[in-house]
Amino acid sequence: xxxxxxxxxxxxxxxxxxxxxxxxRMIDAAGAVLYVGKAKNLKKRVASYFRERHPSPRIxxxxxxxxxxxxxxxxxxxxxxxLENNLIKSLAPRYNILxxxxxxxxxxxxxHDRYQxxxxxxxxxxxxxxxxxxxxxxxxxxxxxxxxQKMFRLRTxxxxxxxxxxxxxxLYQIKRCSGPCVGLIAPERYAEDVEMATMFxxxxxxxxxxxxxxxxxxxxxxxxxxxxxxxxxxxxxxRQVQDKQYVDSGKAGDVDVVVAVAEGGMLCVNxxxxxxxxxxxDRPQFPSNSADSSPREALSAFLAQHYVAHPVPPRxxxxxxxxxxxxxxxxxxxxxxxxxxxxxxxxxQRVWVEMAEQNARLAIAARRSTLSRQGExxxxxxxxxxxxxxxxxxVRIECxxxxxxxxxxxxxxxxxxxxxxxRKSDYRRFNIQDIQPGDDYAAIRQAVLRRYAKxxxxxxxxxxxxxxxxxxxxxxxxxxxxxxxxxxxLPLLGVAKGExxxxxxxxxxxxxxxxxxxxPSEHPALHLIQEVRDEAHRFAVSGHRARRGKAVxxxxxxxxxxxxxxxxxxxxxxxxxLQGISDAGIDQLTAVPGISRELxxxxxxxxx
Length: 608
Fold this sequence. Notes:
By secondary structure, the protein is an alpha+beta fold. The protein contains 21 helices and 18 strands. Strand 10, helix 12 (about 325-335) and strand 11 (about 340) form a beta-alpha-beta unit.
């Protein structure tokens, strides 16, 4: 974009602006976007930046760099919010507070099958099932599912397994399932259990206890003492849950508690989720570009970025009034219903907010401790290996590992450590081809070549240290690849396993022919190397298993005449893999497009 040669004139700009809603972009003299914002009234919002004094030194510094302002008019503030978030994600402006983009939060799902299945779900919701949540973490979902299994004994198995069982599984034996797969519970009774589980997830625990108490009394009158004991155990489990939920409001409802806390130079925004009146846990986040930002600014940025991608509950409790004007208005537009954003008034609401603030402070303390420990480990690593890192530049470590099974389905993995931890967005896997099966040296060489072949032309991030999980042979192969690329100046180190592969006995192999080094088992530099090496191994193994699984599925199906790529893909999509196809009956197989009864019988015979 070409910027005006004349000095920036704020008065001339403001005279041309509209009072409609929209998005504005602050741009510097080099054409870089400094800041993206939304406004209910573009003229009023942009004018607020060009006052004589700014309460925030950070905003004053940004305003001093403005060379141009671009605006886009939208039909509503909610539409402006969506556009603002898209631009923030694509442009990553220097002065916007940025939160990590959590793709999706987990839910509990209840399918609409005859015997409804209880399960973990992550992704877009639809009308083919009932969804409860979202939950702050996978652990919170799994704990809730375990609790529901214990109280209501709902099935959790997938349909291909459920439809082909001839006897109940272990979950029935340990009283975590009522055995609907083999008809050990009537559909009407199972539906009652589903209804009570739904009431529990909606926060109606007292209604569930009342219904169970009536059922227990009725069973006792009929001398059905076994059934009465089951109801008694369910009531006891529910009361234990209520005792643990000491922040339960006693009322059903979904509430998000959002607090922003600044302490010791760190800023944390903590999201606590209340679903069905139950506190499900916290999710602390540390935004980028937040230096010199106030907690109120961070709170507003979180509300805007988070609720564009995730469901908005009817109520939001905050510990500070957001810097943005009337967030309830645009949140309500997004949700399609009224949304209340307020600071706590009732005692239980104050308890929720205070707990969220305390957990934010604990998260800050834990992060500070982690950063301090990581800093000590990095300093120890640089000292032990003689690494020289430019002042102000973060140490970047890239580590390679190879995984295969007797030379088959070889996968190389490269993981990245930078700043204060692993940087998963920079991880890469390579399917190794055209080598002698089992040749780890050739695999390492190919992976290094493919990883760094475009490093110089693209001016990408240069590693401060390259680790190779292996001994002198693997190091020599990696060094040969770097030399071929003209990158032999990059520090390269091999991590050879010690006797009996025992952690703490690793030997460090240098590519520059220095004497191998064996650090003490308690050395902080060795601990950092082990952490990165172990992550590379995990990432390589998971990639290899996935590739091997695909190969096994494909080869088993390819051996069956009449199964081409399209039908093979349809079968795997329908049943989830080879095990699901094996568990399916002939009638189920014929339900897949392109599978005739004759072909279904052939598939069934081949897999049994």
